[in-house]
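Journal club prep, shared notes

We agreed each person brings one worked example of a sequence with its structure written out as tokens. Mine is Universal stress protein. I'm keeping it raw so we can talk through how to read the token line rather than staring at a rendered picture. Sequence first:
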Amino acid sequence: MVATDLSVRSEKALLRAAALAKRFACPWHVAYVVDEDQPATMAEQEAIQVKLLLEARLVELTRLAGNAPKIDVEKGDPNQRINQLAKEKGCDLLVMGAHRKSVLRDIFVGTTVERVLRASELPVLVVSQPPAGEYRDLLLALDTSPTSAHAVRTAAQLGLLEGACKRSVCAFSPMAKGMMEYAGVVEEKIDEFVSSETRKAVDDLKAFLRDEQLEDLIDEQLVAVGLPTSVLQRMVDKHRPDLLVMGTRGMGGVKRALIGSVADYALRELDCDILVVPPAKTA
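Then the structure, token by token:
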């Protein structure tokens, strides 16, 4: 399912969804949710106009995807109804356009994409780039947690790893380095400490990939020193991946609002398509 608001940003997501539907020869939906927080007559008029606009594109969308999408125009709270619709229709993937950045507004209420992500039980593909072919260069963000392992497996189950170069990156920050620098420890000793911690991080990553049976899904394994947000920024700038795959811890409420998350940072700052996968359901 691709959720659209008929913006230029949503158009990129719509075209990507059509390309995925064609690649996997699967049924697909185009959803538009009319915000019900307006006079009923205006909401009804908007619903009618949007349905006509989307139906006018059926021939084009069918040609692009190889099959006609189901068009769903509903009324409700977009942040809630988008997730409900995707679940009701039995979709495997929700596709959305990256929203325009609005710093002050985003700090306090978040974008629609972020609010949908926080409630979604489905993986969400956030599209920021015009489709220029299939995803061929993937960056997999790992943190040796079950959530990041689940994200990689989900991408594989969706078929997104097939035929692509899969490069994983795991960030680590040797916390004692700053204290050693503050205490005046000589640079040589600090370098030795960082090298030792790096070797340990590499061993930990290898053990994680082995235990989670992910080794065969990844072509290149990288460990980088730095905070996760800084490492991801560097990797995206250097490798220009078509798609970043990452999990989210599903943290909510005041805690998330105060400290943010790597997924929030990626959505706000990184200029690439991002597959965000929620934690696996627990029994």
